[in-house]
C-alpha cells in the first residue's frame, strides 16, 4: 500500500497530494473499485451529485472501516444553486452518502448567467459552521469569480478544482491560487487517456526515470503543487497512479511537459459552459 503525502489546506485540513476521481464508477463494480483504491492507499475521494454515485462512495467508505482517515468530496449541482437550495442539496448528499459530514464540499460549476454562486457559497460556509461540512471550496472558478466570493464573504475557498493537465497547465490561475492560499486540484489529470500518454516528451521522461508515462504526468501535477484526482476502475492502474512519490522530475522536465500546452480539451470555459 502506498502512503500518499498530504499538504495543509488554508483551514488546517491535511489534504492528500493525490486522490481518486469517481466519475462513472457506479453500481457494485463502482463500489468495489473505490474500495480497492482505499485499500491501495487512496484517502481522497471525488464525487458529485451529478455523478449519481454518492451511495456507492458512502458504501465504499463504510466497507473500508477507516472512515476517519478519508476525505470525501461532493459537489453542489447547478440546479441547486441558491442559499436554501444548497442547504437542502447538502442534506440530500449526506443522506445518500450515509455519512454525517461532507469533508470537502465544492460548487461544481459557477453557472455565471444564473448568478447565484455567492449565495450558494454563503450556505456552504453556514454548513461548515454547523459541522456538516469540513472544508469549503469551489470548482471551475475563474480568478474574478474567486475574487468575488472572497470579497463577499471574507472566506477564502480551501480548494479550486479545475481542468488541468499538460495540454492546459493553467499557470496564471495557479499563481493566483498560490497568492490567496487556495489549493489547486486537477480534474481529468490524464487528459482522459488521450494521446497525452503517447507524447514523445512524456515517453522519454518516463524511460529516464524507469516509470510509466502515466506516472510522469501525475508526478508533474504533484510538482506543480496541484492535487490530481485520476479516475481508474482497475486496481492495477490505481496502484500505478498512486505510486508517484518515489521519484522527482527535474525543473527542465517539468517545463518540457508544460510546453505541451495547447488549451482546454473540452468545451469547459467556466464563463460560458454551465451545467445543471
Ligand atoms: N469538477 C469538474 O467539473 C470535473 C471533475 N472531474 C473529476 O476528475 C476525475 C478524473 O477525471 P476523468 O475525466 O475521469 O479523467 P482522467 O484524466 O482521470 O482519465 C481517466 C481515464 O484514464 C484511464 N486511466 C486511468 N489510469 C490509467 C493508467 N494508469 N493507464 C492507462 N489508462 C488509465 C481510465 O480508465 P480505467 O478506469 O479503465 O483505468 C479512464 O479512461 C473524475 O473522475 C471526476 O472525479 C472530471 C471532470 C470535470
Ligand atoms: O465530470 C464532471 O465533474 C463534469 O462536470 C462533467 O460533466 C464533465 O464536464 C464532462 O464530462 C463533460 O462532458
Automatic annotation (TrEMBL):
- Swiss-Prot/TrEMBL site (Lowers pKa of active site Tyr) positions: 75
Q: What positions does UniProt annotate as the active site of this protein?
A: 51
As one GO molecular function, the record gives: oxidoreductase activity, acting on the CH-OH group of donors, NAD or NADP as acceptor
Which Pfam families does the entry link to?
Answer: Aldo_ket_red
Q: Which residues form the NADP-dependent oxidoreductase domain?
A: 18-260
Q: Keyword annotations for this protein?
A: NADP, Oxidoreductase
Matching InterPro entries? AKR, Aldo/ket_reductase_CS, NAD(P)_OxRdtase_dom_sf, NADP_OxRdtase_dom
- Gene3D superfamilies given in the database record: NADP-dependent oxidoreductase domain
- Per UniProt, substrate binds at 108
Write out the similarity annotation: Belongs to the aldo/keto reductase family.
**Protein's name in the database:** Diketogulonate reductase-like aldo/keto reductase
Amino acid at each position: 500500500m502506498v502512503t500518499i503525502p498530504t499538504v495543509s489546506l488554508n483551514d488546517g485540513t491535511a489534504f492528500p497530494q493525490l486522490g481518486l476521481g469517481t466519475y462513472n464508477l457506479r453500481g457494485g463494480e463502482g463500489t468495489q473499485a473505490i474500495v480497492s483504491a482505499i485499500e491501495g492507499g487512496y484517502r481522497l475521494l471525488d464525487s458529485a451529485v451529478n455523478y449519481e454515485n454518492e451511495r456507492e462512495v458512502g458504501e465504499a467508505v463504510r466497507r473500508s472501516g477507516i472512515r476517519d482517515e478519508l476525505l470525501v468530496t461532493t459537489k453542489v449541482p447547478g440546479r441547486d444553486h441558491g442559499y436554501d437550495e444548497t442547504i437542502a442539496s447538502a442534506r440530500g448528499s449526506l443522506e445518500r452518502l450515509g455519512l454525517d459530514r461532507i469533508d470537502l464540499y465544492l460548487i461544481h460549476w459557477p453557472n455565471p448567467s444564473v448568478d447565484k454562486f455567492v449565495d450558494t457559497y454563503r450556505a456552504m460556509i453556514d454548513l461548515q459552521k454547523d459541522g456538516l461540512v469540513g472544508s469549503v471550496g469551489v470548482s471551475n472558478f475563474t480568478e474574478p469569480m474567486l475574487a468575488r466570493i472572497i470579497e463577499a464573504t471574507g472566506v477564502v475557498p480551501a480548494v479550486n478544482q479545475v481542468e488541468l493537465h499538460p495540454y492546459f497547465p493553467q499557470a496564471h490561475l495557479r499563481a493566483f491560487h498560490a497568492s490567496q492560499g487556495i489549493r489547486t486540484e486537477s480534474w481529468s489529470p490524464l487528459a482522459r487517456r488521450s494521446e497525452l500518454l503517447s507524447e514523445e516528451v512524456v515517453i522519454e521522461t518516463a524511460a529516464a526515470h524507469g516509470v510509466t508515462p502515466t506516472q510522469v504526468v501525475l508526478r508533474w501535477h504533484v510538482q506543480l503543487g496541484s492535487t490530481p484526482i485520476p479516475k481508474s476502475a482497475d486496481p492495477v492502474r490505481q496502484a500505478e497512479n498512486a505510486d508517484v512519490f518515489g521519484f522527482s522530475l527535474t525543473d527542465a522536465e517539468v517545463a518540457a511537459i508544460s510546453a505541451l500546452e495547447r488549451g482546454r480539451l473540452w468545451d469547459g470555459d467556466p464563463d460560458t459552459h454551465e451545467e445543471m
